[in-house]
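Replying to the earlier thread about multi-chain prediction with a worked example.

Input:
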Amino acid sequence: MTQQYRVAPTDDLIWHDLGSMTLLYHKPSGITHMLADPAPAIIEVMGDAPLTAAEIAARLKALFDLETGVDAEDIVIARLDELRTLGLVSRVSG
Amino acid sequence: MGGMHQILLKIGPAAFRIVSAWRQPLDQLVGLYQNYPQPIGDHVDFTVRLEPEKPWRRHIRPSVHIGGDFWLPDAAPLPLSQGLLAAEMGMNLQMALGWRRHLLLHASSVEKEGKALIMTGLSGSGKSTLSGMLAERGWRFMGDEFALLSLDTGEITPFPRLISLKNQAIEAMQELAPANRFGPEMKSTPKGDIRHLVPPKEAVARMDETAKPALLLFPRFGHAPELRDMGQAEIFVRLTQASTNYVALGEAGFRALTRFVDQVPTMAMDYQSVEQAEELIDSLWSELR
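Result:
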């Protein structure tokens, strides 16, 4: 079974654009996160559904011009791991 | 042990009870805060206690331990001759650690035409001195230590406590303000030479009048005069560092600070003299809409 990921509920998050960075306030923890690209885009495309890294990479490719020659899925997995340690993304079992 | 002495003070929206084992620092406070209104009723927001470090040290080389509702364990005791400074530090500490009705920014602020200029930066940036100088040159003084940002309206509420002058700023301000507005000179305190200055009467009379933030500056003393744009991310981070209660306020603090960063024009300002700073501020102010 391929690992799926789920982002924190939309109602728990407040977004604010700071130009070069994006602020994300996580209500349950009271922590303000400052995110650089592509982390905000990853959270945005994840929506409410549990998705695999490959599915997230596919959604990103559909919305953004990604550089060719890079493995988008590897980048997504690395960012998902970082977002998991921040408590913004969790692994879905099953 | 003899009885404790106490006075009540109201500074902007905050009411304080200062309790002291000695009469002297309270007499100095009463003199310097004589034009301030008294709190209504007995309710106070904070109590500050100036007590002997040890009971037997009330008379023998007395040193003042600062206590209160909120305190830091490493606040060092001060000699009794610096009791006034201890009281001021105690009041600042209560605000910094305990105030919840506004987002607190370590910043000075002055007002003109209902609009506030806010200046923030590290110790030594000159924000306190600049606010004191501008207050003698046509601006209304709102505070030299904390700017209180409303969580609902986004306006700044004054907190015009005594202006705390350090080192060279003491002499510079003595050329501008009359002698009867200065407190005692305290030499070689942990913060250097300190002398308090009573804000102009208008600042106290209008201390309940809020102002809309119109310009935020990050002054830096000792560099050739220059104005620089700053990115919003840098501004936001530096303001969270300048706030003592951002984390404690949670979502309300986040909403207040992001609105502030969105709406208030902000510049970094280098300067080498108060005259240079005043020129830069006047030029920016005249361009505001």
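The two ends of chain B are 61 Å apart (CA to CA).

Feel free to reuse this layout for your own posts.
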